[in-house]
UniProtKB/TrEMBL annotation:
<protein>
    <submittedName>
        <fullName>UDP-glucose:(Heptosyl)LPS alpha-1,3-glucosyltransferase</fullName>
    </submittedName>
</protein>
<dbReference type="GO" id="GO:1901135">
    <property type="term" value="P:carbohydrate derivative metabolic process"/>
</dbReference>
<dbReference type="InterPro" id="IPR001296">
    <property type="entry name" value="Glyco_trans_1"/>
</dbReference>
<dbReference type="Pfam" id="PF00534">
    <property type="entry name" value="Glycos_transf_1"/>
</dbReference>
<feature type="domain" description="Glycosyl transferase family 1">
    <location>
        <begin position="184"/>
        <end position="348"/>
    </location>
</feature>
<dbReference type="GO" id="GO:0016757">
    <property type="term" value="F:glycosyltransferase activity"/>
</dbReference>
<keyword id="KW-0808">Transferase</keyword>
Amino acid sequence: MQLAFILYKYFPFGGLQRDFMRIALECQRRGHAIRVYSMFWEGEIPPGFEVLIAPVKALFNHARNERFTAWVQADLARRPVDRVIGFNKMPGLDVYYAADPCYEDKAQTLRNPLYRLWGRYRHFADYERAVFAPQSKTQILMISEVQQPLFVKHYGTPAERFHLLPPGISADRRAPANAGEIRADFRREFALADDDLLLVQIGSGFKTKGLDRSLKALAALPAALKQRTRLIAIGQDDPRPFQLQVKALGLSERVEILSGRSDIPRFLLGADLLIHPAYNENTGTVLLEALVAGLPVLVTDVCGYAHYIAEAGCGQVLPSPFDQERLNRTLADLLEADDRRALCRRNGLAYAETADLYSMPQRAADLILAEQGE
């Protein structure tokens, strides 16, 4: 079969982008041809992929998206495919991979009513409706149980069009046999003493991921504990607002902000705690990557995958509504309790042995191809 995958942007370090790549590669491995439509591509193109970058520009994102959709639909009319799989909400999809939360719910609960008068709102609401309306035929691959009731509430989407996927953690995130050696080498490279503590925060979109909250919690640590604690934040985002916050909090010697990189497993093995106090997060793949690496996690309960942390007993889940003081206290408690972090590590590694945290690409490919009777 000829499959068309559509996503607005591809770069190697985004969660949605990595999910797209692993699903597309799995479909290719099964013998199907892959065509990709995008507006931006950064990184290598896998052998055999046909990648088309749309030559569209516009002052506003929603206008650019509409021009992109028209360009893609025109090309598909000239060169039809067997299946159209989208990773952003848009009309004309056979399958939608639901990486993003319900836009209509956010517009109604988090925005001023005047927001819904703008063209931006109408665009994103219309594109979401094209996927989730009852009359749509789009099959929906869900990666978070939390969001499905919201889509049903706002659109009345039939239950049979939703397909819940298991997580899809890459096997290279699991702690290898020489994890201790990798950790030691990493800590030497970053000049971390045996009693130093390293926090990592990993994920593109520093604002949504709550990096500001993490910086406040680090600044609030007791003086002696703060003196031996460092934070490395990694993500594809503009670091400047957070660099200003680092300076204002007097943390310049304690914090590094790095752009996205491909050696994340080393950081998961070399750190002492993953901190992830997100404002909202449909899933949070990095939470499970930390779990299978044996790295304790401190996370807010709004993340779709936070329940795995609680089930595995490999960290602490902060309840809503968010309380900065609670985060500050919990962080200090976890950093001071070496034995508790060691238990979290053992629990995470044991959970990784038995739980299905890895099969999302295979299950997604099953569903994509099954719609054509394979």
